[in-house]
Protein backbone atom coordinates (compact mmCIF):
# COMPACT_ATOMS: atom_id res chain seq x y z
CA UNK A 1 0.00 0.00 0.00
CA UNK A 2 1.37 3.36 -1.01
CA UNK A 3 1.17 6.05 1.61
CA UNK A 4 0.80 9.47 0.05
CA UNK A 5 3.31 11.88 1.49
CA UNK A 6 3.08 14.73 -0.95
CA UNK A 7 0.51 17.25 -2.05
CA UNK A 8 -2.45 16.43 -4.25
CA UNK A 9 -1.26 14.62 -7.37
CA UNK A 10 -1.76 16.06 -10.85
CA UNK A 11 -4.44 14.63 -13.09
CA UNK A 12 -2.82 11.99 -15.25
CA UNK A 13 -3.56 8.95 -17.37
CA UNK A 14 -1.54 5.77 -16.88
CA UNK A 15 -1.80 3.53 -19.92
CA UNK A 16 -0.70 -0.09 -19.68
CA UNK A 17 -0.41 -2.08 -22.89
CA UNK A 18 -2.62 -5.17 -22.86
CA UNK A 19 -1.64 -6.48 -26.27
CA UNK A 20 0.13 -9.73 -27.08
CA UNK A 21 3.75 -9.42 -25.96
CA UNK A 22 2.99 -7.28 -22.97
CA UNK A 23 0.12 -9.54 -21.94
CA UNK A 24 2.44 -12.56 -22.09
CA UNK A 25 4.78 -10.73 -19.73
CA UNK A 26 2.21 -9.91 -17.08
CA UNK A 27 0.66 -6.60 -18.14
CA UNK A 28 -2.75 -7.56 -16.74
CA UNK A 29 -1.18 -7.77 -13.28
CA UNK A 30 0.62 -4.47 -13.84
CA UNK A 31 -2.66 -2.79 -14.77
CA UNK A 32 -4.45 -4.30 -11.78
CA UNK A 33 -1.70 -3.05 -9.47
CA UNK A 34 -2.02 0.47 -10.85
CA UNK A 35 -5.81 0.41 -10.64
CA UNK A 36 -5.68 -0.57 -6.98
CA UNK A 37 -3.19 2.14 -5.98
CA UNK A 38 -3.44 5.24 -8.18
CA UNK A 39 -4.52 8.37 -6.37
CA UNK A 40 -7.81 10.12 -6.98
CA UNK A 41 -7.72 12.05 -10.23
CA UNK A 42 -5.42 9.58 -11.94
CA UNK A 43 -6.93 7.15 -14.45
CA UNK A 44 -5.25 3.80 -15.10
CA UNK A 45 -6.41 1.79 -18.07
CA UNK A 46 -5.37 -0.68 -20.70
CA UNK A 47 -4.24 0.18 -24.20
CA UNK A 48 -3.54 -1.53 -27.49
CA UNK A 49 0.01 -2.09 -28.67
CA UNK A 50 2.24 0.96 -28.28
CA UNK A 51 4.89 -0.35 -30.65
CA UNK A 52 7.44 -1.28 -27.97
CA UNK A 53 6.66 -4.98 -27.81
CA UNK A 54 10.21 -6.20 -27.17
CA UNK A 55 10.50 -4.18 -23.98
CA UNK A 56 7.11 -4.68 -22.38
CA UNK A 57 5.11 -4.51 -20.37
CA UNK A 58 4.95 -0.94 -21.63
CA UNK A 59 3.50 1.87 -19.52
CA UNK A 60 2.93 5.47 -20.58
CA UNK A 61 2.08 8.30 -18.22
CA UNK A 62 0.23 11.15 -19.89
CA UNK A 63 0.25 14.06 -20.40
CA UNK A 64 3.83 13.85 -19.11
CA UNK A 65 4.91 11.78 -22.12
CA UNK A 66 6.80 9.34 -19.91
CA UNK A 67 7.51 5.82 -21.11
CA UNK A 68 8.38 3.00 -18.74
CA UNK A 69 9.50 -0.43 -19.93
CA UNK A 70 9.68 -3.96 -18.54
CA UNK A 71 7.34 -2.92 -15.75
CA UNK A 72 6.46 -5.52 -13.13
CA UNK A 73 3.74 -5.37 -10.47
CA UNK A 74 6.46 -4.94 -7.84
CA UNK A 75 7.44 -1.61 -9.50
CA UNK A 76 4.00 -0.04 -9.15
CA UNK A 77 4.33 1.28 -5.57
CA UNK A 78 7.53 3.08 -6.58
CA UNK A 79 6.02 4.58 -9.75
CA UNK A 80 2.92 5.69 -7.86
CA UNK A 81 4.87 7.26 -5.03
CA UNK A 82 7.74 8.85 -6.95
CA UNK A 83 6.05 9.82 -10.22
CA UNK A 84 2.40 10.36 -9.36
CA UNK A 85 2.81 11.82 -5.86
CA UNK A 86 6.27 13.39 -5.94
CA UNK A 87 6.65 14.30 -9.65
CA UNK A 88 10.00 12.50 -10.02
CA UNK A 89 10.63 10.10 -12.87
CA UNK A 90 11.61 6.55 -11.88
CA UNK A 91 14.84 6.58 -13.86
CA UNK A 92 15.75 2.87 -13.76
CA UNK A 93 12.45 2.03 -15.46
CA UNK A 94 12.50 4.73 -18.15
CA UNK A 95 12.42 3.44 -21.71
CA UNK A 96 15.85 4.35 -23.17
CA UNK A 97 14.42 4.92 -26.67
CA UNK A 98 12.39 7.87 -25.40
CA UNK A 99 14.47 8.91 -22.42
CA UNK A 100 18.13 8.46 -23.38
CA UNK A 101 20.60 8.89 -20.58
CA UNK A 102 22.85 11.93 -20.99
CA UNK A 103 26.01 9.79 -20.94
CA UNK A 104 24.68 7.12 -23.35
CA UNK A 105 26.68 8.41 -26.34
CA UNK A 106 30.04 8.96 -24.72
S1 LIG B 1 2.48 -5.58 -27.25
FE1 LIG B 1 2.78 -4.01 -25.76
S2 LIG B 1 3.87 -2.48 -26.82
FE2 LIG B 1 3.38 -3.94 -28.34
List the helices and strands and how they pair.
Elements: E1 12-17, H1 20-24, H2 27-37, E2 42-47, E3 59-62, E4 66-68, H3 76-85
Parallel strand pairs: 1-2
Antiparallel strand pairs: 1-3, 3-4
This protein binds FE2/S2 (inorganic) cluster.
Could you walk me through the main structural features you see in this protein, from its secondary elements to its overall organization?
- The structure is a single chain.
- The relative contact order is 0.22.
- This protein has helices spanning about 20-25, 25-35, 75-85; strands spanning about 10-15, 40-45, 60, 65-70.
- It has one domain: Glutaredoxin (3-Layer(aba) Sandwich), CATH 3.40.30.
- The chain is α+β, with helices and mostly antiparallel strands.
- Strands 2-1-3-4 form a 4-stranded mixed β-sheet, with helices on one face.
- It is built from 3 helices and 4 strands; from the N terminus they run E-H-H-E-E-E-H.
- About 25% of the residues lie in helices and about 20% in strands.
- FE2/S2 (inorganic) cluster binds next to helix 1.
- FE2/S2 (inorganic) cluster binds near residues 20, 49, 50 and 52.
Helical amount: 10-25%
The number of distinct helices, counting runs of at least 4 residues, comes to 3
* N-to-C order of helices and strands: EHHEEEH
Q: What's the overall geometry? A: globular
Give me the CATH fold name. Glutaredoxin
The total beta strand count reads 4
Q: Provide the CATH superfamily.
A: Glutaredoxin
The biggest beta sheet is recorded as: 4 strands, mixed
Number of domains: 1
Q: What's the level 1 CATH class?
A: Alpha Beta
Amino acid sequence: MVEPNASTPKRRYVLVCQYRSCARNGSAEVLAAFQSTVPAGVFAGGSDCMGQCASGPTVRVMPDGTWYCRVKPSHIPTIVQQHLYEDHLVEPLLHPRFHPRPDAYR
